[in-house]
Design a protein that fits this description.
Blueprint lengths: L2 E4 L4 E4 L3 E2 L12 H14 L3 E3 L8 H10 L7 E6 L1 E3 L5 E5 L3 H15 L4 E6 L8 H13 L3 E7 L3 H10 L4 E5 L12 H8 L2 E5 L31 H21 L3 H10 L14 H8 L8 H10 L12 H4 L5
Parallel strand pairs: 3-4, 4-5, 5-8, 8-9, 9-10, 10-11
Antiparallel strand pairs: 1-2, 6-7
The structure holds NADP nicotinamide-adenine-dinucleotide phosphate.
The site of NADP nicotinamide-adenine-dinucleotide phosphate has 29 residues, from helix 9.
């Protein structure tokens, strides 16, 4: 698997990573045995950039990774996140917390659950509008000095926040949603700011939360209790409009002789050597298919054809329900 460099501090990751969130959180159908086998297979295939967060569960996702990685911690680049506040009862509060005393407690909890003495990449998951970013990032810089964290990142932040955080402690990666259906970072200044400052970019949900695979055509295709049932993009008229675009993307994949998911991932990979997407799956079958995308090269003509059917802003419906949308781009 190709290795890519994120940022100017020396972080090297596999070009394709593995998003572990859905193994225990947000998406229905938990199967710990298959999830463990998927992580092990990922390592075999060289997909060693693993993504989790304290909030996924909460805590169960980090615990799952910790148990699989026992004795083989050094074979992976481990990324986790803090900031979606978890209360003393171990449940999410629905708030964001960027206070230094809070994050100092969170990193110690993450290290214990992951069974390691350091995290390779530690992200601020959401920006706390009530705490100056310099305060949060001052404390993050201290975690690097203490050796608990090797590299720092931020998720879903606005350009000015990225700039101020990076000026406080060097930032290696920005993680934000980015796919053929969610190209906002191309025109809201986020990608341009990363490039100007030499910060790597990690697209999350690069398969459009599974939509671009073509396997979800009705809201009812999603398991009971699945988070996506509440996502505006997977409902009503927006879903119908998105399916029309999807059919055109699928036709391009067929012409190329690759699966729709491979086309979607190859497109993200083609956006630059400073980009390392983290497609999520809890199945070996999908993981193997997705890893194949690393060998798919898109020609200029193919990229142009994709551009025609899936330009910036093509998706219908917001990517989160209203309350969660307000927590983005702070
Ligand atoms: N920073 C943030 O705020 C944030 C937000 C969301 C996600 N993330 C991170 O990004 C990672 C990836 O995002 P995501 O999981 O939301 O979305 P995604 O990678 O776009 O899609 C994942 C979905 O696609 C399905 N899938 C994967 N490969 C497939 C294939 N070859 N064929 C058919 N279906 C396939 C998965 O199914 P199965 O699960 O059934 O295998 C899952 O339902 C997450 O795991 C998480 O680590 C970060």
């Amino acid at each position: 698997m190709e290795q890519r460099t994120l940022g100017g501090q020396g972080l090297r990751v596999s070009a394709l990573g593995l998003g572990c969130m859905g193994m225990t959180f947000a998406y229905g159908g938990q199967d710990d045995t298959e999830s463990r086998a998927t992580i092990e297979r990922a390592i075999e295939l060289g997909v060693t950039f693993l993504d989790t967060a304290d909030m996924y569960g909460p805590h169960t996702n980090e615990e799952l990774l910790g148990s699989v990685l026992a004795g083989r911690r050094d074979e992976v680049v481990l990324a986790t996140k803090f900031g979606n506040e978890i209360g003393p009862d171990g449940q999410g509060t629905g708030r964001v917390n960027g206070r230094p005393d809070y994050l100092r407690g969170q990193i110690d909890g993450s290290l214990a659950r992951l069974g390691t003495d350091h995290v390779d990449l530690y992200y601020q998951h959401r920006v706390d509008p009530d705490v100056p970013i310099e305060e949060t990032w001052g404390a993050l810089g201290e975690l690097v000095e203490a050796g608990k964290v090797r590299y720092l990142g931020i998720s879903e932040a606005a350009p000015d926040t990225i700039r101020r955080a990076h000026a406080t402690a060097p930032m290696s990666a920005v993680q934000t949603e980015y796919s053929l259906f969610t190209r906002d970072v191309e025109d809201n200044g986020v990608l341009a700011t990363c490039r100007e400052l030499g910060i790597g970019f990690v697209p999350y949900s690069p398969i459009g939360r599974g939509f671009l695979s073509g396997t979800i055509r009705r809201t009812e295709d999603l398991p009971e209790g699945d988070w996506r049932r509440n996502s505006p993009r997977f409902q009503g008229e927006a879903l119908q409009a998105n399916l029309r675009v999807l059919d055109e993307v699928n036709a391009l994949a067929e012409r190329k002789g690759v699966t729709p998911t491979q086309l979607a991932l190859a497109w993200v990979l083609a956006q630059g050597s400073d980009v390392a997407p983290i497609p999520g799956t809890k199945r070996r079958r999908y993981l193997e298919e997705n890893a194949g995308a690393a060998d798919v090269t898109l020609t200029a003509e193919e990229l142009e054809a994709i551009e025609k059917v899936a330009p910036v802003g093509v998706a219908s419906g917001e990517r989160y329900p209203a309350a969660a949308m307000r927590m983005l781009h702070q």
